[in-house]
Structure formats: C-alpha cells, structure tokens
UniProtKB/TrEMBL annotation:
<keyword id="KW-0963">Cytoplasm</keyword>
<comment type="pathway">
    <text>Metabolic intermediate biosynthesis; chorismate biosynthesis; chorismate from D-erythrose 4-phosphate and phosphoenolpyruvate: step 5/7.</text>
</comment>
<keyword id="KW-0028">Amino-acid biosynthesis</keyword>
<keyword id="KW-0547">Nucleotide-binding</keyword>
<keyword id="KW-0057">Aromatic amino acid biosynthesis</keyword>
<dbReference type="Pfam" id="PF01202">
    <property type="entry name" value="SKI"/>
</dbReference>
<dbReference type="InterPro" id="IPR000623">
    <property type="entry name" value="Shikimate_kinase/TSH1"/>
</dbReference>
<dbReference type="InterPro" id="IPR023000">
    <property type="entry name" value="Shikimate_kinase_CS"/>
</dbReference>
<dbReference type="GO" id="GO:0005829">
    <property type="term" value="C:cytosol"/>
</dbReference>
<keyword id="KW-0418">Kinase</keyword>
<dbReference type="InterPro" id="IPR031322">
    <property type="entry name" value="Shikimate/glucono_kinase"/>
</dbReference>
<dbReference type="GO" id="GO:0000287">
    <property type="term" value="F:magnesium ion binding"/>
</dbReference>
<dbReference type="GO" id="GO:0009073">
    <property type="term" value="P:aromatic amino acid family biosynthetic process"/>
</dbReference>
<keyword id="KW-0460">Magnesium</keyword>
<feature type="binding site">
    <location>
        <position position="22"/>
    </location>
    <ligand>
        <name>Mg(2+)</name>
    </ligand>
</feature>
<feature type="binding site">
    <location>
        <position position="40"/>
    </location>
    <ligand>
        <name>substrate</name>
    </ligand>
</feature>
<feature type="binding site">
    <location>
        <position position="126"/>
    </location>
    <ligand>
        <name>ATP</name>
    </ligand>
</feature>
Amino acid sequence: MTEGVNVPKSIVLIGFMGSGKTTVGRELHQRLGYPLVDMDHLIEQRAGKPITAIFAESGEDAFRDMETALLQELSAPDAPRRIISTGGGVVVRPENRELLHQLGYVVWLHAPVDTILERTGRNRERPLLHTEDPRAKIEALLELRRPWYQATAHQAVDTEGLDSSEIATGILESARYFFTGHV
Ligand SMILES: Nc1ncnc2c1ncn2[C@@H]1O[C@H](COP(=O)(O)OP(=O)(O)O)[C@@H](O)[C@H]1O
Ligand SMILES: O=C(O)C1=C[C@@H](OP(=O)(O)O)[C@@H](O)[C@H](O)C1
Ligand SMILES: [Mg+2]
C-alpha cells in the first residue's frame, strides 16, 4: 500500500498563545470547508468547563493528557481531512510532536513578544499567563518551545502586520505544493 493513502492529510496550526491559531483556523475552515477542530474548544466542550477550570481543578498534566488523547483520536486512519487549531503547549510532549507531524501539513504561526503580550492581554482565558510578569513568562516559554515549533512545522509564518485572511492565503499557497507534490 502506498504510504498515506488512507490517511487524509489535514492542515495543522501550531504556535505560541496569541499567535492566531484559533482565528486563522476559522478562516481556513471558511475557505476550504474542511471540518474545524479547535483542540482547546473541543477539550472544553467535552470537559464541560473552561481551560482555566481544568488547570485549577485537575492541573496542567491532566490537561496535557487530554491533548494527547485527542491527538491520538484525530490520527485515526479513517479521519477526514480537517483544519486543526492546537493549543500553544501541544508541542511540549515528544509523542504529540510525532502525531502532529503525521497528521498533515503543519504550520507554525509566530509573532513578536510585544504582539503576543497585547493579544493575550485581551482576556483571562490563558491560565499560564495568570502571573505577576506575563512578559517574562512568555519569554521563558518561548525560549523552551521555539525549537519544538520549528522542528514540527513544515512552514513558519510571521503573522506580524498581516490579517488572518492574508495569513490563510499564504498558508494555502504553500500547502498546495505539499498536497500535490508539484512545485
Ligand atoms: N493576524 C492577527 N492580527 C491581529 N490580531 C490577531 C491576529 N490573529 C489573531 N489576532 C487576535 O489575537 C487574539 C488571540 O488570537 P487567537 O486566534 O485566539 O490565538 P491563539 O489561538 O493562537 O491563542 C484574538 O483577539 C485575535 O482576534
Ligand atoms: O501555551 C499553552 O500551554 C496553552 C495554550 C492555550 O491555547 P492557545 O495557544 O490557543 O492560547 C491553551 O491550550 C492552554 O491555556 C495552554
Ligand atoms: Mg486558540
């Protein structure tokens, strides 16, 4: 059997909190019509509570277990082609990085720290940034995670100064080559 024949490749968005994964995922979903899975939203829906409550009541490890279980589910051989928006910490586990890479065309959205700080400051949805010094936390996590984003992604996109429509167009232009094999 030719490798990958029964595993339709999805478009997978990775990157730090506030890089635009949820927003660009919606844009790609609208353009392509592929089903959208926003992992955070699905986890919240299934748990019946927001991520802040999952972290507070069960801890970060329990949330990471939910992410890994969901990635395994999304990797089923009969899965449809999808748009998948991940949470920013999905790359911390090596088994997740492997699963992400197998799932399809992986795009790393990134943005400067000031932009991340501004975008994530708009609400209190991200428990890891409920700290005295969110900038220092962002810088420390970015330092740790950057190599994992880089190693997992097929494409990196600097989102600074671009709106979600422009970002989606850039992704689709490059994804075309990945899916068709033609340059
Ligand atoms: N390219 C962009 N330009 C300006 N604002 C953006 C962009 N992408 C996302 N945002 C805004 O930044 C915030 C975080 O975006 P979101 O899509 O939730 O990021 P993520 O899912 O990566 O954490 C939201 O308020 C969103 O509207
Ligand atoms: O970076 C992280 O570890 C997290 C990112 C969040 O998703 P977004 O990247 O969509 O904000 C969410 O999964 C959770 O708060 C943990
Ligand atoms: Mg998101």
